[in-house]
Amino acid sequence: MGSISLKQVTKSFEQHEVIRPLDLEIEEGEFVVFVGPSGCGKSTLLRLIAGLEDVSSGQIMIDGVDATNLAPAKRGLAMVFQSYALYPHMSVRNNIAFPLKRAKLDKEVIAQKVNQIAEVLNLTDYLDRTPGQLSGGQRQRVAIGRAIVREPSAFLFDEPLSNLDASLRVNMRLEISQLHKDLKTTMIYVTHDQVEAMTMADKIVVLSAGQIEQVGSPLELYKNPKNKFVAGFIGSPKMNFIPMESSAEDNVDSIGVRPEHFTISTQEGSWKGTVGVSERLGSETYLHVDVENVGKLTVRAEGDCAFEYGDTIYLSAVAEQRHYFTADGTCIKRN
Amino acid sequence: MATNNSRALARAMLSPAVILLLIWMVVPLVMTIYFSFLDYNLFMPGEHDFIGLLNYEFFLTDPAFVDSFFNTIILVVGVLFITLVGGTGLAILLDQAIYGRNFVRIMVLAPFFVMPTVSALVWKNMFMNPVNGLFAYFATSLGFEPIDFLSQMPLTSIIIIVSWQWLPFASLILLTAIQSLDREQLEAAELDGAGKFSRFRFMVLPHLSRAMTAVVLIETIFLLSIFAEILVTTAGGPGNASTNISYLIYSQSLLEFDVGMGSAGGLVAVIIANIVAIFLMRMIGKNIEG
Amino acid sequence: MSIKNSNRSKLFYTGLAWLISTAIFFPILWTFLTSFKTEAEAISAPPSLFFFDWTLENYREVMERSPYFRHFWNSVVISVGSSLLGLLIAVPAAWSMAFNSTKRTKNILMWMLSTKMLPPVGVLIPIYLLFRDLGLLDSLTGLVVIMTLINLPIMTWMLYTYFKEIPGEILEASRMDGATIGEEILYVLAPIALPGIASTLLLNIILAWNEAFWTLILTAAKAAPLTAFIASYSSPEGLFYAKLSAASTLAIAPIIILGWFSQKQLVRGLSFGAVK
Question: Hey, what domains does chain B have and what are their CATH numbers?
Answer without folding.
Answer: 56-287 (1.10.3720.10)
